[in-house]
Design goal:
It contains 17 helices and no strands. With 459 residues, the protein is mainly α. It folds into two domains: 208 residues, no CATH class; 211 residues, no CATH class. It is globular.
Amino acid sequence: MYQHILTAATRLKQHLLNSGQKLIRKTQSDSLQGFIARVAAGTFGIKVANAFLAYAISLLLARILGAEGFGSYAYALAWVSLLLIPAVLGLEGVITREVAVYQTKSNWSLAHGLLRWANQVVLLSALILGILAAVVIWVLTPTSDSQTLFTFLIAIISLPFAALARLRQSAMQAIQRIVIGQVPEMLVRPILLIILLGGLSLLGISLSTPWAMGMNTAATGIAFLVGAYLLDRYLPENIKHTPAEYRPLLWLRSALPMLLIGSLYIVNNQTDTVMLGAMKDSEAVGIYTVANRGASLITFVLVAFNTSLAPTFASLYAQGDKRRLQRVVTKGCRMVLLAALPIAFALIAFGYWFLLLFGAEFVQGQTALTILSFGQLANAATGSVALLLIMTGHERDTAIGISASALLNIILNAILIPQWGVEGAATATATSTFFWNIILVVFAQKRLQINSTVLGKLN
């Protein structure tokens, strides 16, 4: 009798334990899904607002400066984007991944040390690069082209602010203050720029390209100050008040592949603009920039999900929970593609009217807009594959895939731009985008046994 009671009690205990574990797993899963949903929704809202503000800025600048002036403005910013990658040294990815892991393991001293060390290194790097770039531009630019010279020099002033802002955004991601961390660059900066541009236009003041760039630099600096205040407010007290511990060699080893990846990303994103400006003219750059920004609307939902998923990928992988990781990846990819399809259809079907908003001279980019839209659809269908590899410690595989794509992008631009101009640049970019996504999907399946595309399984 006693044995039967003991056996029954043991079974009841085991049943309660199993039920409790299931409940805990369900609660954790619901909590994770709720967090991702909230962050994705908030980020999506900010991205929508930012997209609206960005196109308002582009519309204002295109109308005020014309295709040639707007092309010079975009060309200078493209070079700043290129300089931003070596300035940041790949440390933004290290911060997002390592600070999230340090929090999971309560390594507060390492989190404090990484944030302090990274900011000091990046500030020094940005200042040195900015000075060198200014000297090179001053020497190489003809004295007759003073407007282009001053536009470049003013743009370079924003480099340290933009570089440190990248680190701050990564830190806010890691501590799961993702939505509020995007406010300075996504909302504060463009709103300030619109106010400045609109105010001068209403006053009837003639606006040149250097003046427009000066306003952009001022707005970038103010947004940086707002972001610094927000990070100080939301950074956990355990990180701020625990003595810093430094592992610079470890962080640099992790940063170097991410620096390569970031450099190749910018090559893929800016090669078309830079080579088009070098091989054609500023007007072609202006037309292409408007078309490219239109196509980028298709995947701004993917960017929203990437921002919210980065620390989640790192945490789930650190816990060894690949099943939940696959579910998160697949659900995110399907939601992104579902949102991307109607935007792509609208741009392809009504691209002429979209471009006409910027001026009659911009409708020449309709074919380029269609080509770029198909490339971005392929990007959406393969999901957050690059981010997945980086956040799980496979950044070297990401670097290999994007290296091959960057090389292909340069070769195709060199071949196609002289023949087809704006359409050639669009074809090169769309082709290389599709190519690198396919390579990374193969790596994700091989290294993680995870299908990052819309065809991934939920169970």
